[in-house]
Amino acid sequence: MTPQLKATLAKLPDAPGVYLMRDARGTVLYVGKAQSLRQRVRSYWQKHGAGEQPLRIESALDRVADVEYTLTDTVSEALLLEANLIKRTQPRFNVRLKDDKSYPFIKVTLADHFPRIERTRKLPQDGSRYFGPYASASSVDEAMNLIRRLFPFRTCTIEIREGRRALQRPCLLYHIKRCQGPCIEAIGKDDYRRDIEQVMLFLEGRQETVARALRAEMEAASESLDYERAAALRDKVRAIERTMESQKMAAHARTEQDVLGFARAGAEAAVQLFAVRAGKLVARDVFLLENVAGVDDGEALAAFVEQYYAAAGSVPPRVLVPVALPGAGELVALLETRRGRGVEIVTPQRGRNRSLLVLASRNAAETLAREQARWLADQGKTLEALTELADALGLPAPPTRIECYDISTIQGASTVGSMVVFEEGRPRTGEYRRFRVRSVQGPNDFASHQEVLRRRFGHVLRAEEGSVEELRWRLPDLVVVDGGKGQVSAARAVLDELGLHDVPLAGLAKEREELFLPDRSDPIVLPATSPALYLVQRLRDEAHRFAITYHRQVRAKAQVRSALDDLPGVGPARKRALLRVFGSARQIRQASVEQVAAVPGIGPALAARIKASLEG
C-alpha cells in the first residue's frame, strides 16, 4: 500500500458518495458507491487476501495506488453519479454495458417554437424530451421511420418562429407530405405542437390514446364535410391499429412494466428488455454486458438496472427481474427519483409475469449465442488477416496495433492529416488523432506526411517512461501511410530522423492496391480475396474518411470566415444568428435583403451591407 493510499484511507469521511480506484498511471480501475465511504472502502483492504471477495476485486486491489472520492447528499445521487462515471471512464473491473459510445436516444426539441425530432447520443439539459436509450441505431431508425410515416414533422435546422415566414418556398419534404411546412406558415404553432404531443404519446407506448384522439378528429372532419382530411386521419388510425395489433402479447390488461430477461455465457451476458405498456409490448431491445466473470446474476443485473435507468427517458411503475437484486432498496430509490413516483422491483415466482420473464430470458440467451458465434467468427477472420499481413510484410509476429495516416487537401489549401488506430484488427476510435498541417505551403503530400509523423512520434520521445503520455502515444507494431514509394520514403526519413529505426512501415497505393516497403523496390500484391488486403483497405479507407471529414470542417470554417468575419458590424453573436437561420454563406447570398434583415440583431442597413459584400 502506497503512502498516498494510506493517507487517503485514513481521512475517508463517514458519508455517502462515490469512489474511484486508480492505478499508478491514474487509470480508473473500479468505480463504486457507498452509504459510508469510510466503512465501505476500508473494508476492501481489511478483507484483502482473505478470500472473502470476488477474484476481480482482489485483482483490482493489487493494482490500486490511490482512491479518489466524491461526496453526495444521498445514496440515490451516488448511484446516478456511479452510473455516469462507469460510462465515462469504462473501468476495467466494473460490470458495464457493452458499448463503445453512448446509446442512442430520440430527442424532441421542445424548447423550439416548432420542435424537431432527431437522433442523439448526448443528453444536455436543454429543455428537450428524450426517449430511450435504444440498444442500436437500427432500433432508433425503425421507431423514427414509423413516426415519420404517421406524423409529418420538420427535419430542417433553420430557426422558425410563429408569425414570421422563414422561407419563401418549402423544400421537397413538404411537397411529398413528409413535413407540414411551418417554414412557410402552412401550419400554426398550436396545431404543430398538438401533433408533436401525439408523437410523444406514441413513443411512450400510448397508441390507444393517440388513436382515440385521431378518431375524434376524423369524425369532426367528416361532419364538417372535409373528406380529404378525414380520409388522411382514417389512414393514420388504421396504421396505428396495425401497430397495436402486432404488439399484443400475453400480459395483464393495462399493465405498465419493464420485463428484464437475463442470460450469461463466460465473461459476457445479455439482458432482454420488454417494455409493456397498457398490456402491449411497445418496445424490445437486447443489451450486452461485459466483465461479468466471477459476478453472480443478481449483481450483474443490478449493474444493468443502475446504468440503464440512470439515463432512461422513462421509468415504469414496475420492473420485473428473474432474480433478487443486491441493494434493491437503493435501486428502488434511484428509480423513484428518476420517475418522480413510486416504483417496485419484483421477482415473480409464478403466473403470467413469470412466463414473461422466462420468454425474455430465452430471447436473451438466443441473442447471446448469436453474438458469441459472430465474435468467434470475426476473431478467427481477424487473426487470419493479421497473420497473413505479417507474413507478407516479413514481420516477426502479427501486428497488434496498426496506425494508418492520410493527408487531405485541395490544391494545398486547408491541408490536414489523420491518424487512425486498429488494435487486434478493430478500430480504436478513442485513439484517433487529426492534425492541421501548418509548415507546408502548397500541395506537397510528402512534406505533409512528414510533418504529421514528426509531430505524432515526437510525443513518444518527449514522454517519460511509464507516464500516461507514453501510454497514450505508445509505439505501433506497424505504420501504414496512404500512398506509394514516395510517401513511404518520406515517412522512413522521419522515423530514422527520430531514431525509430525498428518501427515497421508500409504504404498502400490506391490504384492497384499495392503494398510498398522502404527497403524493397517492387511492390507486394496481395490476392484479391485476401483477408489481409481487406484489412489494410479498411485501414486506408478509415484514415481517408477521417481526414476528409476534418478537411471539410476546416474548409467550411475558412469559407465562412472569409465571407462573414471580415464584415464591419458582424461579430460572433451576429454571425451565429445568421448561420442559425440560413446555415451557410451561400444561403445568405441567395436570400433577399428583407430576409437577412429579419434575423435578430441585423436590421435593414446592415443587411444591405452584408448582401453587397457577399455578392461583390
Features:
about 625 residues; alpha+beta; GIY-YIG endonuclease; 5 domains; 8-stranded mixed sheet; 6-stranded mixed sheet; 20 helices; 20 strands
Q: CATH homologous superfamily name of the largest domain?
A: UvrC, RNAse H endonuclease domain
Tally of DSSP β-strands: 20
Proportion in β-strands = 15-25%
Task: Provide the CATH top-level class of the largest domain.
Answer: Alpha Beta
The number of helical elements comes to 20
Helical residues, percent? 40-55%
Unreliable spans are: none
Q: Can you tell me the overall shape? A: globular
Total tally of structural domains:
5
Fold and architecture overview:
The protein has 616 residues and is an alpha+beta fold. The chain has helices spanning 3-10, 37-47, 55-63, 75-89, 137-150, 172-175, 189-203, 207-223, 227-247, 297-309, 328-339, 351-393, 445-462, 468-472, 485-497, 531-565, 572-582, 585-590, 593-597, 604-615; strands at 17-22, 28-34, 66-71, 96-97, 105-108, 117-120, 129-131, 256-265, 268-277, 280-290, 318-320, 344-346, 401-410, 413-423, 426-427, 433-436, 478-482, 505-508, 514-516, 524-525. Strands 13, 14, 15, 16, 17, 18, 19 and 20 form an eight-stranded mixed sheet that branches. A six-stranded mixed sheet has the order 4-10-9-8-11-12. It has five domains: 3-94, GIY-YIG endonuclease (3-Layer(aba) Sandwich), CATH 3.40.1440; 105-247, no CATH class; 256-296 and 317-369, no CATH class; 401-553, Nucleotidyltransferase, domain 5; 566-615, 5' to 3' exonuclease, C-terminal subdomain (DNA polymerase, domain 1), CATH 1.10.150. The mean pLDDT is 84. The radius of gyration is 29 Å and the shape is globular. The protein contains 20 helices and 20 strands. Helix 4 packs across helix 10 and helix 13 packs parallel to helix 15.
